[in-house]
Amino acid sequence: MWEYTDKVKEHFLNPRNAGKIEDADGIGEVGSLACGDALTLYIKVDDDNIITDAKFQTFGCASAIASSSALTEMLIGKPVEEAEKLTNKDIAEYLGGLPREKMHCSVMGQEALEQAIKNMRGEAGTKAEHSHEGELICECFGVFDEEILQAIKANDLKSVEDITNFTKAGGGCGKCHEDLERLLAEAQGEAAACATPSATPAYPAEGMTNIQRMHLIESVIDDDIRPALQADGGDIRLMDIDKTSVTVQFMGMCSGCPSSKATLNNLVQGKLREKVDPAITVTEG
Amino acid sequence: MKTIYLDNNATTQVDPAVFEAIKPYFTELYGNPSSMHRFGGQVGVTIKEARSSVAKLLNCDSDEIIFTSCGSESDNTAIRSALNSRPDKRHIITTAVEHPAVLSFCKFLEKKENYEVTYLGTDERGRLDLDEYRKAISPDTAIVSVMWANNETGNIHPIEEMAQIARDNGVIFHTDAVQAVGKVSIDLKSSAVDMLSLSGHKLHAPKGVGALYVRKGLMFRPLLIGGHQERSRRAGTENTTGIIALGKACELAAKNMETENTVVSRLRDKLEAGLLAAIPDSKVNGDPENRLPNTTNISFGYVEGEAILLMMDQLGIAASSGSACTSGSLEPSHVLKAMSVPFTFAHGSIRFSLSRFNTEEEIDFVIENLPPIIENLRKMSPFSAEKEGLACTGPGSMQ
């Protein structure tokens, strides 16, 4: 059984504003019988652009009915300009939250509202039609890429499962899961590109003074490199540091070892590049 | 509030006689049946009796019964054993309407282990096509696994005939009989079924116990390997109380099956007829001529199943739905989908499954109180305008 909040249950069992407004100023229809949920939202708007009445007709589960009922309560008395800022998150929050798998019910409310306002302004018909400019991703539920990208961004979606919970895309045969992964990566890539420059330095020694840099090199040799060489009966001595050029001397079993060149490049230089500066070159003195 | 429990294909009430039978095994008789001492040994004797009761219900030998933890474990064991004992064969036949215990496992085998799986389809009544089945069998087929009765619609499949066809082709035949055992007469001695799964909690034993019948002589590969319990065919300390309960439940089922089913099917028929008469645009899913005596799956057009269930729950009526919203998936039941039930009806399907503990008064209550629920939901639906005349006029109608 779903864990619904008391408010969801209350709105489901005693829905407010169920029904039709015969002379509605705006009507928004979304969903279909095939999809398993559908909502028709009616709004009445006065001369001051205030929503004076809102009613709904919903075919769907408890959270779909509760989301519709909540939406009408939120709309009545609000100026249209404010109402059009309402999001699915606001609907879910009003209800004290919805199970993540049911978030698409709140999305349906937001879409119906957008459509009703467009219809009121004479910009569109009553039924939300996909622009078909984008790519049809989920054939089972008829969801296009634009809608998915918008949902990812608006709700900070992180996984295919999230996308399904919010848009229904991917909830049928599952053939579109790869496309959904692609859209996620695309949205996340854009987010990364738009992100403010990171405060984290590109490499550990970036911005350090020469003394700090030398201390860091010494500590990497002492903590990460020497113990590994000592385990094989060898050792290392730091001879010189000149900016990014480091000179060392092998000792013990490492001195004259046929693999010393590889050890120098892979272990010593590799570790210093990783932990200090990728520009470091190490030579044997 | 009294609960009217009409969800017996999900689980059943433990029969009071079963509960009485197992009580001492929680308190005084808690020995381990594998122990050498008499204190454990006496429990071993009772387990032997339980095994015999299960065998009697299925008309097989006691040593053909392996106790497991549930129907799913029995199903998985059966399929895995067949595949492991015939490693050269890579083909499995099952149906599109199986319980997930078989269906999900077959899909796993298909994806992860490269087995080829044929999923037999059904007609609109949920009936399998035997010609399609015959054609699907190939020399590479290792096992056929087909449920005896469907959990959602109650449809009974022609298992005896299908098992014989498998045997004629040298293929192992397994049946998930979780819903059938205790409700239909099963005679394994005269059948070609090689393996059969059952689950205790579907026939008035507690949850957490099941059994697998494995025909004598069939090569068997255990799923759980460890101790020597169940003659090394299923390792793990016996769930003694569960097993003893299952034995008692099987004993009761064998004794009362016919009479009980007559009573239960009469109540089921009354419920079905009452709802169909009172609620327009409603229809039965499945094959009314060939189904379990306790099950009816009814679709109420233009309403959504979860909403119906929750409204019913407010009145203390417990049932199940094949609607998408109850399952966490977004599509209605795979069984109704396989039967090509139209979306209009599939989303509003409710499964009522009765037991011997249901009463005439309970059925009357549902017939009286469900129609107004459907009517209210339809009134709220945007499709009501398209479907003028859907208002209920039966008993309890708000009109």
TrEMBL record, chain A:
Its cofactor is [2Fe-2S] cluster. Belongs to the NifU family. PANTHER family: IRON-SULFUR CLUSTER ASSEMBLY ENZYME NIFU HOMOLOG (PTHR10093). Gene3D superfamilies: 3.90.1010.10, BFD-like [2Fe-2S]-binding domain (1.10.10.1100), Fe-S cluster assembly (FSCA) (3.30.300.130). Residues 217-282 form the NIF system FeS cluster assembly NifU C-terminal domain. It holds the Pfam family NifU. Residues 3-123 form the NIF system FeS cluster assembly NifU N-terminal domain. This is Nitrogen fixation protein NifU.
Automatic annotation (TrEMBL), chain B:
It comes from the Bacteria. Residues 4-364 form the Aminotransferase class V domain. Gene3D superfamilies: 1.10.260.50, Aspartate Aminotransferase, domain 1, Type I PLP-dependent aspartate aminotransferase-like (Major domain). Its EC number is 2.8.1.7. It is an enzyme of class 2 (transferase). Keywords: Iron, Iron-sulfur, Metal-binding, Pyridoxal phosphate, Transferase. Pfam families: Aminotran_5. It catalyses: (sulfur carrier)-H + L-cysteine = (sulfur carrier)-SH + L-alanine. Its cofactor is pyridoxal 5'-phosphate. Coiled coil: none annotated. Belongs to the class-V pyridoxal-phosphate-dependent aminotransferase family. NifS/IscS subfamily. Catalyzes the removal of elemental sulfur atoms from cysteine to produce alanine. Seems to participate in the biosynthesis of the nitrogenase metalloclusters by providing the inorganic sulfur required for the Fe-S core formation. Homodimer. PANTHER family: CYSTEINE DESULFURASE, CYSTEINE DESULFURYLASE FAMILY MEMBER. This is Cysteine desulfurase. It comes from Pseudodesulfovibrio portus.
